[in-house]
Amino acid sequence: MKTNVLTLKNEIDLDAPPPQACLQPTRHFDCDDPSVQAYATKVVGDAETDIDAIVRLYYAVRDEFRYDPRHFFLSPEQFCSRQVLLDKRGFCMPKALLLSTLARTQGIPSGIGFADVMNHLMPDSMLDSLGQNKPIFHGYSVLYVDGKWLKASPAFNLSMCEKLDTKPLEFDGKSHALFHEYDNKNRKHMEYIKDHRAVADFPYDMVYFEVYGKKYPDIRKLISDQQAEVS
Asked: Which of 62, 185, 199, 211 is the most buried (most CB within 10 A)?
C-alpha cells in the first residue's frame, strides 16, 4: 500500500512494543465506561488467554453490530464506544473503535489504523454520495496480542456478507484480518490503496476536517441537510 500524509498525533510504531497510551481510557476509547466494561466481561466469559479473548470480542463486534454506512453523523459522540453499544450498528470506524476499546478493558493494548480502500462492489447509491471511483477512508483496529501487532477489520457482519455473497472476514488472533480482494464469485471486491498509519487515540478533528472536509465535502453537506430537516 502507498502512504499518504495526514495530521496524526500519538502514532503507534507497529514494529515496537506498545506505549502506555494504548491501554489508557480517552473520550473515544472509553474503556473505563461501566457499560463498555460490562459488555466486554459478558463476551469474554471464561476465555483463558488474550488470543481467546480478542477472538471472542472480534466476532461479537463483527456480527452483533450491523455494518451501516448510512448511520453516519460525524458527531464526536458517534465515535465513543458507549454510543456504539447503544446504536448496535455503525460504519467501519465506530466498529473498529469499539473492538479496540473492548480490548483495552482486558489489558490488551490497542489503537486504530486508517487506510484508503476501494470497494469495487459499492452500491450506486453510495457512489453518488462519495463521488465516482473515489477510495473510501477506512478505519481498522490494531491490537497487540501475544507479543505482536495485528490489524483487524470487524466492519462487515456475517449476515450482510451472506446476503451479498461476499467472504466474511475471519480472525484467529494470530494473523491480520484485512478485507478480501475478491468475493465468492471471484469479482474484485476490496483494494487497499493508501495506508495512513495507526494512532493510540481517535483523531476526531483530522477525520472531520481533513478527511470529510476535503476529500468528501458532499458527505458533510448531505449530513448538514439531513440534520436541518429534523431540527
From this structure: 62
